[in-house]
Amino acid sequence: MALTKDITCHQAVALVSDYLEGALSGRDRRRLERHLEACQACSAYLEQMRITIAISGSVGPEDLPAEALSRLLDVFEKYQQDKSNE
After folding, report:
1. CA separation for the pair 30, 74 (Å, rounded)
2. Average pLDDT estimate for 52-56
3. What is the pTM of this model?
4. What does the alpha-carbon distance between residue 12 and residue 28 come to, in Å, rounded to a whole number?
């Protein structure tokens, strides 16, 4: 996702996973960090994600029952469709 100078909360939320995984470019990381310094809501969201990861550890597709995996994939596909219709 190419970011403009200032990012929106919507963009920040979309980038949190990449940020936590260290997958953002230096430029995008700095832009996100500037946003997080100024936005309490996005900072709280980032902290919630850190806590969720710490509590749940990592779960791979092989760790999920087939029905749960299927439902998650359905939700993801719907999200992608909704996102492309914006």
Report:
1. 34
2. 86
3. 0.63
4. 10
